[in-house]
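Workshop exercise sheet. Pairs work together: one partner reads the sequence aloud, the other fills in the structure field after running the prediction. Swap roles for the next sheet.
Pair: D.N. / O.F.
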Amino acid sequence: MGYKIPGAAMDRVSQLWRLRRRARRGALCMALFCMTMALLYTFCAENSIPVTDAIFGVKARTRAQPRAHTIVKVLRGTGGSKPMYTDPQKLPGVIPGDPQKPIPILSSSNYSMESGKDRNLRGKRRERGLFYWLLSQPLRRALETIFGGRRRGDVGGASGDAVVFGPNGALGEVWNEEMSSSMLGKRLRKVVQNYQAMNKYGVRYPGPENAAHRSKLSGPELLCQIKNMVQIATLTQDMEPFSGFPWASQLPPRQITADIGPFKTCAVVSSAGSLKNSGLGKEIDAHDAVIRFNAAPTTGFEKDVGSKTTVRLINSQVMASEDHHFLSSSLYSAGILVSWDPGPFSSDLGEWFNKTDYPIFKQYQRYRRLHPQQPFYIVHPRTEWQLWQRIQDNMVETIQKNPPSSGLLGTVLMMSLCEVVHVYEFLPSRRKTELCHYYQRFSDAACTLGAYHPLLYEKNLVKRMNKGSDHDIYTHGKVTLPGFMTFDCTNSSTSSTLSKT
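Structure field:
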C-alpha cells in the first residue's frame, strides 16, 4: 500500500510548481524584452533617432528644439513607409536615457580614421575573439549594451573616434582656431551635414569658394570687419509692421545701444558645464555688467558663476516652453531682457512676424503686461544674419545655414556696450567636459562643438579675435575682447581689406 500524499500538500506543491513556471516565463520574457530594447537602442543610436520617438512617436519628443528644425528620416525606404523623426542637435554625443555616457565625436589630431581602423583591427580581434567578429554589427552592439562591454572611450563604436574631453583628448589644452567639420566624428559630422543641407530661412549667400583665395584676416582686421558690418539693432515702436499694432507701445522707443551703457568692463558668462567647480564667481561679479543666457541660474552656483545679472539674453524657445515658466519665474525679472528668434535671411519683418519659430511676440506681450517697467528688447533678425555672414566669409567650408548661437550674439552685443569684454568658457578651459550646462546633468558633445548652430566656426572666430593669452583660456576659459568703442578702423590698414570683402 503506497503512501498517499494529502490533498493539501498536493495543492501546495502544485501551486509552487505553477509559481516556478511563471517565474521562469517572466525571466524569459524579461530577457527577451531587454534584448529587444538593446537592439532598438542600438538601431536608434546608429541612425541618430530618439528612442522615445521610435516607441511613442513624435509627440513624446522633448521641447529641446523647434519642431520646424526636425529632420524626417524614412527608415524603410519609400512607398508607404512611415517617417520617423530625429532632432539632430539633441542626439549627437549622448546615449539616450543615460546622460552619464557621452559619445565622443571628435577624432584626435594627426589621426586618420581609416588608418586607425586598419591599425587597430588586428589587436581588437585578439582582444574580442573570432566569434565576436563573426557576429553582425547590430548584434555586437546589442551584446555590448547588455553586458556592459562598451568602455567610456569606445562609445563611438566603429566610428574610430578618440576621447575628446580628457586631459589628453583631441581638443588639446587650448582651442585651435583651425578646427573644422572634417575633424568631427562620424555621428556628429552626419548631423552637421544634415543641417548644412537644410535651408529653412532662405539663405542666399555665396559659398566659401572664394574664401580659399582670400588672405586670412588677422584678429584686428576681423574685429574691424565685425564692427563695420554687423549692426546691433533691436525692434522699436516706429518699425513696420509693428507701428500699426495696438501693442506697439510695449516695444522700446529707442535702440538698446542708445539706452544701455557704456560700461567699462563686462563679463559674458556662458552656461557651459566647464564652469562647474571653477570658482570664478567673485571675478565675474567684479565686472560692471554681466550677461547671462536663457535659463541659466545663479542661486546655488554663486561660487562658480557669480550672482550679478545685468542683461539676460533668451531665445524664443525658452519664452514659449512651459518647462521654463517664463511668465512666472523670478529668474527673468532681474536685469534687462533681450530676446531673439530666428528670422528669415531677408530680414523682412512682416514675413518674420507671420512665421516665427516660436510665438515670441505673443509671449513678449504677455510678459510686458506683467512687468511693464522692466526693459525688454527684441533683436532685429538683420543682426543675426549679418553676424552669420561674417562667420561664413571667414571660413573655407560651408557652415550651417542657421543663425549663430546666443553665446556669440551676446558677445557681440556686449562688445557694442563695453570697453573690455571677458567671455567665460565659450572656449573650453582645462575643465572641459561633456556636461552641457553647469546646472544640469545632461551630457552632449554637440553643446561644445555645435550641431544646429555653427558653433564650431564661432569659436574659431572668437579665438582669432582674442586679445588675451592662451594661459587665460586654459586656466579660466577666459577670452578678452576689446569693445567696439575702443578702436578706430577708419584710418587703419583694414580699410582696404574690408573693401575687398
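Discussion prompt: The CA atoms of residues 6 and 12 lie 10 Å apart. What would you look at next?
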